[in-house]
Amino acid sequence: MLIYVNFFMPNACLLALASVILRLIISFMARRNGCVFCFNPL
After folding, report:
1. pLDDT tens digit string along 1-42?
2. Other C-beta atoms within 10 Å of 33: how many?
């Protein structure tokens, strides 16, 4: 993830926000399916 932030410095905040939202969605879906450790994005 640090590589992307270094390459896209103007979009660093947007990228971080998208990463957090994606992680929340994936963790929510994983909990709904009863799998906590299936999807663990870096």
Report:
1. 555 656 656 667 777 888 888 888 888 877 776 665 555 554
2. 10
